């Protein structure tokens, strides 16, 4: 900066030319071009660093997304393959069920026809045995009489087996006549039918109030007849007892019925086998029967969409629990 001034002396004489004073003022550091350049450079570096970090973050995220997308595509591919396999297996299972059902129907039809056709020859054998026994009555010794008795016992047992097999073959879900059933009436009818057997064995049948269900009256009649008669037959007590009650379970879509006795019971190792057809846990000399009763019972309850099992908590005797769906229709 330059300052010019005019002045006078003590005598009042002015200096027309004047005097000049030059003052040099330096700018502040932050106002210099160097400082501004440094600031601009730092700002540029910061922007570059921030942009670089941002682009690296975006790149890293994109890489993670590509990885996740690849994994997701692989998972979708695997799931699609699993779904296709499940559809294939389901189709195969349906075909197998259809074939199994047809095979069972063929087997039941064969059993029915074979059993029916065997009745007549057996009847003939029984009749001829009786005629032969009558003809040889005066000439029969002890051993011959024993042989005749064995033949008649064998014929009687075979007739019983055939009759049971015909009954078993005739039971199933294909020929159900569904109506509303009062189980109290069905049980009472079976008690009346077994009256002689109950009195001879001094048995006691206890029946608590039972529900009304949807089912086939004939098949449920056979079911309770088998379970009640088994409770009396497989029993060495002086006073056999069979108790039939309704029980409560968590699944309220079913009626649950317990049939309990104080008989000889079933060993745990045999509980998975007792519902097999012709499966006997005792000799025919100890307890009579064909070994079809419980298999028939299971077939009946299964055809009604229910279950039957042995209650493992029972300490003495045998306790069966059956279930019947409340809305079978």
List the helices and strands and how they pair.
Blueprint: E1 2-5, E2 19-22, H1 33-135, H2 142-170, E3 178-182, H3 183-193, H4 195-200, E4 204-207, E5 212-216, H5 217-233, E6 241-247, E7 254-261, H6 293-303, E8 307-310, E9 319-325
Parallel strand pairs: 4-6
Antiparallel strand pairs: 1-2, 3-5, 6-7, 7-9, 8-9
Helix pairs in contact: 1-2, 3-5, 5-6
Describe what you observe in this structure.
- The strands form 3 sheets. This protein has a 5-stranded mixed β-sheet with strand order 4-6-7-9-8.
- The N and C termini lie far apart (114 Å).
- It contains 6 helices and 9 strands.
- The longest helix has 103 residues, at 33-135.
- It is 54% helix and 15% strand.
- The chain has 329 residues and is an alpha+beta fold.
- The mean pLDDT is 80.
- The protein has helices spanning 33-135, 142-170, 183-193, 195-200, 217-233, 293-303, and strands at 2-5, 19-22, 178-182, 204-207, 212-216, 241-247, 254-261, 307-310, 319-325.
